[in-house]
Amino acid sequence: MPTDEILSVSHVSKSFDKLDVLKDMSLSVSSGEVVSVIGPSGSGKSTLLRVVNQLERAESGDIRVCGQVLCHNDDKGRAVYSDKDALKAIRLSIGLVFQSFHLFPHYSILKNITEAPVQVLKTSREEAENTARELLKKLGLSDKESAFPYQLSGGQQQRVAIARALAMNPQMIFFDEPTSALDPELTGEVLKVIRSLAADHMTMVIVTHEMAFAAELSDRIIFMDQGVIIEEGTPQAVFSSDHERTRQFLQNYSK
Amino acid sequence: MLSAINYSSMISFLLDGTVKAVELFFLTIVLSLPLGLLVARLRMIKFKAVQLPVKFYLLIMRGTPLILQLMFFMYFPPLVLGFGVDRFMVAVFSFTINYAAYFAEIFRGGIESIPVGQQEAAYVLGLSQFQTFIRITVPQVVKRIIPTVAGESMTLVKDTALASIIGVTELFRNAGSLKATYSSVIPFAVAGLFYLIMNSVVAAFYSRVEKKLNYYKG
Predict the structure, then answer these.
(1) What architecture is domain B7-212?
(2) Torsion of CA A117, A158, A204, A16, to 10 degrees
């Protein structure tokens, strides 16, 4: 298994008003790994993803993404962030897929996928469209390229959202509960796409409630509760854990 | 002294007034919409030093009668600053800053109704704040506010009559002159018809824009 570290989260804390959402959290992800993050609501799983993707600012901690420093602690233990250009470079090296897809409703499916490469990477429209069409083909959505998001089902929209993230050629992709907003029948098609990304050795961190999927696909499972990591290990280890809190949580998902 | 109504010269005089009204309408719309968008953007900046003057401006513009604002800008400069001002320019200025205030709040409401998730998606994709605002947010805002802007435009057509208070020779004032000449209210009836025609054109225009923007939902 590849050992180069692609994400390093070290002693990160984040609170909203007086509520501690992340408490001295540490996590490391290696290139090519698939890591699933599970845990009850409010455990800080989404906040962790949002902090790494710069949608929230950590109060303290060291975060390194793809070898670049996102933030580091000053001598008072407060997180100091890198400059704008460095932050932007990091944003371009990782992707995030949201629970509610957040496609751009006024753009066709094709334009949703080509917009960022054209506007940010300055790719030519032609090249961006070719890449987009290839991605749509892989996802089985070629016939939808001229459609608009409102015409697609939730599962289709989420797959387009994944294509949109992939079009930027990220080194790793984060998924924030990618199937939680979908009807059960539609989760399968999205999980299939994520499975194929894993087969292509894409480094991924997936926050999910789909336990069977997490168990099947992940190299590592992280169980979080109230801002800290309770347990971390292979799917086998975590799902047969003796740890009280872990067993309690997993009981709700046993079938 | 009564004179028989010379309809052709009445219509021609009323049309002159209509042209003035239409000029005032177009200049106001073209200037106040971008100004309104700018003010909306300023209103959303999180510094008190910016927010307080903007809120004050919005309060004054929307809280006092436009007709008084017109009079203020007509009579204030000569009294205090010592120079006279062209009536029509005063009217354009006063209408513009008044309507910009209304459009600013309409824009702000529209901007705030766009789900923040889209801005977050644009951000993680690497789009700049400016690119996100212009390419993602504004196009959707425009579609959402069309019905309200149409309503404001139709109000503006009617509000051009207020410019008569500072002597602009628009439709309402000209109708009034004709009433005095002929001692008849027929000129006002015809003027009313002209306002109706102008507003029908405005309504039809916005309806067409709305249809064109309906290529997507949401």
Answers:
(1) Orthogonal Bundle (1.10)
(2) 90
